[in-house]
Amino acid sequence: MAKATTTGAVLSSRPFHLPIAATFLVLVAASTWRMRVETALNDVPVNFLERVEVAQLEHGTPLRTTYTGVAAIDAVLSYLVVAFVSGPLGLDDGFRLLQIHFLLNFTSAVCLFNVEACRKRNASMAISL
């Protein structure tokens, strides 16, 4: 049980909150560096930016560049298409399995959101939309 001090603050019965939080933040920073920054610096996946600019896959398949008609949205969508098209086209079997795994796990999250959205207690919250 937590004890009150003379200043009114409550002492925690878990004295290691700060080291655990600091360790977590260090791991987050290291993961961000390894997953986002370092991959961009080393051109991973190989020739990704060139494929986006040319709007063509490695073997010459052309890609659409207009999806909504809004240039800013189309630019973002063209990056996403180049990033994820190799799975559905069957160009990379490992990536295809990774996408299937993600979609199966994402389906459970969508189901949970739907259940929470239908609860009467959440009727006035943003999740109900």
Layout of helices and strands:
Elements: E1 3-4, E2 10-11, H1 17-41, H2 48-54, H3 71-84, H4 93-118
Describe the overall structure.
There is one protein chain. The protein has 129 residues and is mainly alpha-helical. It folds into three domains: 14-44; 48-85, no CATH class; 87-129, no CATH class. 56% of the residues lie in helices and 3% in strands. The protein contains four helices and two strands, in the order ββαααα. The chain has helices at 17-41, 48-54, 71-84, 93-118; strands spanning 3-4, 10-11. The chain is extended, with a radius of gyration of 23 Å. 2% of the residues are buried.
Mean of all residue-level pLDDT scores: 86
- Unreliable spans are none
Shape field: extended
User: How many angstroms separate the termini?
Assistant: 40 Å
> Helical stretch count?
4
Biggest sheet architecture: 2 strands, antiparallel
User: What is the beta-strand fraction?
Assistant: under 5%
Strand order of the largest sheet: 1-2
Rg from alpha-carbon coordinates: 23 Å
Bin the helical content: 55-70%
Structural class: mainly alpha
What's the count of strands?
Answer: 2
Structural domains: how many: 3
Order of helices and strands: EEHHHH
Summarize the structure.
The chain is built from 4 helices and 2 strands. By secondary structure, the chain is mainly α.
